[in-house]
Amino acid sequence: MNTKTEDLEALQLALKMETDGYKFFKDAGERTQNILAKETFKSFAQWELEHVEFIKKTYQELKESGKWTSTDQMSQKKGDAIATFKTIFREKHEKIDENVQINATDLDAFRLARDIEDKAVVFYQEKAKSAKSDAATKFYLFMVVLEREHHQILDNSYRYFENPVQWNIEDEGWMFDGG
Question: Cβ(103)–Cβ(83) under 8 Å?
């Protein structure tokens, strides 16, 4: 099998993984009752769709011209997920009494979502290591950065919902001393 065929197959697998992620986040957003969780999952579904479109474009370019899509345009989106989440959190956190209640099923959804992002990071890292061109390596490493951002947001959300008091203490950097 030649390199181009291997790369196209890897992109098809990445496309399936991102599409499955979209379906999961869309479903989680529809099922959860907590406003903050609902908005978080809704945002993740949108980000997964952006990944799907980027991978489709990359697949098409690679298939037609043998060249990888530049990550420059998508690079502008790095950090957007964290900024968007901070805005959502700030807006929803104002109604803390309404938003803090979350059931075990919703917490499980965050746990599963973290696992999805972990698997995506591992997948893209493995593809970056085995890539045979600098452009492919750059593409996969870029995807690792995006997926790590997503994991960070989901982990932060999970910790918040699991124990809001502890989360607030950590977020504000409280220090306890015996003095």
Answer: no
